[in-house]
Amino acid sequence: MTQSFWVRVQVGLLNRRHWRTLLELSTALFEYLEIFHNRQP
């Protein structure tokens, strides 16, 4: 399950744009994880 989760993160977030700063990437990753976590039953 962990591997499929990281594939989703890569496809859904990381491959969609280039990040100018590490802060931008970490903020986007945090927001993505919050949405993913809150949708799980």
TrEMBL record:
UniProt protein name: Transposase
